[in-house]
Specification:
By secondary structure, the chain is of the alpha/beta class. It has one domain: Metallo-dependent phosphatases (Purple Acid Phosphatase, chain A, domain 2, 4-Layer Sandwich). It contains 10 helices and 21 strands. The strands form 5 sheets. Strands 1, 4, 7, 8, 17, 18, 19, 20 and 21 form a 9-stranded mixed beta sheet that branches. Strands 10-11-13-14-16-15 form a 6-stranded mixed beta sheet. Strands 2-3 form a two-stranded antiparallel ribbon. β13, α9 and β14 form a beta-alpha-beta unit. It is globular and about 50 Å long. The N and C termini lie far apart (41 Å).
Length: 406
């Protein structure tokens, strides 16, 4: 059993009766100084965690390195590029290696739920999706690299989970579930892909995580799960009808006291402007009264943050773990830098109490605390992009960043 006992939503009706029958015990209340009070919930959020391809090759159980990209036929090429940029990287590293200094940060913050966008298939099976161009996969025996950071929830509504076809998706789902990891946003049918992940907190309240992907992030329409076909929980557009479908889905599961996260894989990889339709979509979801936090990802670098009616909208978390070291281009976005997001919400109202971001630098396929200069660069960029959205970013303790809002 992991640090936080959890159970899939479909077994939680009614919640109070289900807990004793399932033999669950409530997690002990954290005594870490970061905890604001028993009336709050703190979430760790991350953008894309790409543990496939080059990262997979340095873990204890590297998979078949063959890939079928226009300019590369081996995942080893990405490892060699990173070594050319920053020096030798050890092989068969321990599972905690890739998280580096982030583990200490997370242990000190003691978030109630840890949520990532897992942007890779986890499989030895399948064939590369035709004409996809880029394929990520991690060997299933390397799943402990996620458990090393006590990850609770893996969002799979993204443009790489089906890189190795339906057989690859089937093994991805079974491997993660068999390792005690909760997934959301993909499944053997549309109904399964739409189910939220539910995490039980002390006091018999819950965090519900829903996940959808959009074609604007590169998800092929053919990947959409249907009543008879596995796939991704894919939104066709951002129209009022789609918003109504989402709020109806969320509302049918939400109970009093729940905190609801909607995780969205949307938009392109590069550039800071927030599309007007994204802002309208996020605000309308919050206006519905059933959504407390928007967790956006797909952009390879962090985007601006908005707080609307007391609810945070993180339009793009940026990559957290990837194998992009040594790849030239897009230097103006500082793709070596990443953020750990720690979001504290009021349990009763769902309103934001605090949002801190811990800067990290990716080097030798490992997360390291940044120097002050790099933290200041991130602060300036995020402050510039968040001010038009009504928020500001300032320095906190050490190199941490903190959001301020009106």
């Amino acid at each position: 059993m992991k640090r936080r006992d959890f159970i899939k939503y479909s077994t939680l009706a009614p919640l109070a009766a289900a807990l004793p029958r399932a033999g669950l015990t409530m997690p002990k209340q954290s005594m870490q100084p970061e905890r604001m009070s028993a009336d709050t919930v703190t979430l760790f959020l991350a953008g894309d965690v790409m543990t496939g391809r080059g990262i997979d090759q340095v873990l204890p159980h590297p998979g078949d390195p063959r890939i079928f990209e226009p300019y590369s036929r081996s995942a080893q090429d990405y490892l060699h590029l990173a070594e050319r940029a920053n020096g030798p990287i050890p092989r068969a590293v321990d599972f905690a290696y890739i998280w580096g200094d982030a583990l200490t940060v997370l242990d000190e913050a003691a978030p109630d739920v840890r949520i990532i966008n897992l942007e890779t298939a986890v499989t030895r099976r399948g064939e590369p999706w035709p004409r996809k161009g880029i394929q990520y996969r991690m060997h299933p025996d390397n799943i402990p690299c996620l458990s090393a950071a006590a990850i609770d929830c893996c969002v799979l509504a993204n443009n790489h989970v089906l890189d190795w076809g339906y057989a690859g998706l089937e093994e991805t789902l079974s491997s993660l579930s068999g390792s005690g990891l909760t997934t959301v946003g993909a499944g053997p049918s549309r109904a399964a892909a739409q189910l939220p992940a539910a995490f039980v907190l002390p006091g018999v309240s819950r965090v519900l995580v829903f996940a959808w992907g959009l074609p604007s992030s590169g998800i092929p329409m053919a990947w959409a799960a249907t009543a008879r076909k596995p796939g991704v929980n894919l939104l066709p557009d951002l129209t009022d009808r789609t918003i109504s479908d989402i709020t109806d889905t969320v509302g049918s599961h939400r109970q009093p006291g729940d905190v609801v996260v909607v995780s969205l894989h949307w938009g392109g990889n590069w550039g800071y402007p927030i599309p007007a339709e994204h802002r309208r979509f996020a605000r309308t979801l919050i206006d519905s009264g059933v959504v407390d936090l928007i967790h956006g990802h797909s952009s390879h670098h962090p985007l601006g943050i908005e707080v609307y009616r007391g609810r945070p909208v993180i339009y793009g978390c940026g990559d957290l773990i990837d194998d992009y070291e040594g790849i030239s281009g897009h230097e103006e976005f500082r793709i070596d830098l990443a953020l750990l997001y720690l979001v504290t919400l009021d349990r009763g109202s769902g309103e934001l109490r605090r949002l801190e971001m811990i800067p990290m630098q990716r080097r030798k396929f490992r997360l390291n605390r940044t120097v002050a200069e790099d933290s200041d660069w991130l602060r300036a960029v995020l402050d510039r992009e968040s001010r038009p959205l009504g928020a500001r970013v300032e320095r906190a303790e050490n190199t941490a960043l903190r959001l301020r809002w009106d």
